[in-house]
Amino acid sequence: MKHILSLYLYLFLFCVFSYSQNYQIKKIVVDATTKLPLENVLVFNETDNSTTNADGKFVFVSQKNEINLNLLGYEEVKTTFDELKNANDTIFMQIKTIELQEVVVNNAGSYMQKVYSKIKDNVLLNYTVDFFLRNTLKKENENIVLQDIYAKKNQNTTNKKMISIEILNMRKIKLFEKKDHINFKFPDFNSFISMIVPEPSKCNYTEIAFNDADYKKITFETKEKDHTGQIWSGYFIINRNDYAVVEYYIIPNNDLNKTPYQKGLISNVQFRTIKWNKCMKFSKDIATNKYYPINLKMECRVEIVTDKKTFFYDNNIDYFVTNNPTNEKVNSNFSPDKDLFKAKFPYSKDFWKNQNQLPLTTELELFLKSIADKKDKTKEYEVIGNF
Q: For residue 22, what is the domain's CATH number?
């Protein structure tokens, strides 16, 4: 009897361990025809989400064995950790080749009115998610900032602050030349996560061909210039079944090189934004049948003019949600209206081992390797970071 009880105990412990262990895998996703890497491919199952970086690489961690890969315009891939474990490092995604539907341009405006009227029915308003955010900055095409944040976000429309952020862990590093007195201000969570949508009555809409019969793609352009002299344009990709927006892209349409300069705090410095765009992707929460932003990407280029030279900063921010929405409470520890890089939290190497995140691109890996060399040149460079 004693041996039987011991066996039962062993089996129970084994089952508990098996249930709690995580599957983990790293792969590269490319276009099956061009063999080029595919960025922002959604990697997911019933409980967890990840995405690919600019090199097409992803890391996926989950307790579920299933893996799905989805990118609009491509055939969805359904597989498992077990199948991919011994497979090739590269996953090929096939572009959809269905016959393009005839484009109807006459009713695009009225169709978008319907989309706007369905927003309240389609959008998830109050929820909590975990997310990963990568913030990078280049000066003259050379990386000088890397910041990765893993955090919880609660969105609550009944709260005055609307958004609460709990940073769980962070790694950041900034390398700059001491002679460079330019202080770059990064966006805050509020401005980055917000969705700037033009009023439907102030836009011209056109439906264009899209190689997925389940969705419509409608482009837009504002009829009038804004206060900065810009016409805005972009597109919506809309689910035909429920009129929900699943992807949204916006960009200034005018020549940003004609944008007037602004003066910095230092009298001999002028600056202007000459590139800005944002792309947002939305996913449906099965539990509520509502949509929420699962992936955001923003790109910005700023031109700096001093009395000696002209140079450029490029800021890219990538964000993706790593789990399905919950009602979990958030212990707010960072203000959503504060500069992202102002966050100060200790770095834990162990924390990052089992998190869904963007792998470092080859370019960022080289940046981190270069820091050690430049860090020793104390007269020329300074490093700020936590890892």
A: 2.60.40.1120
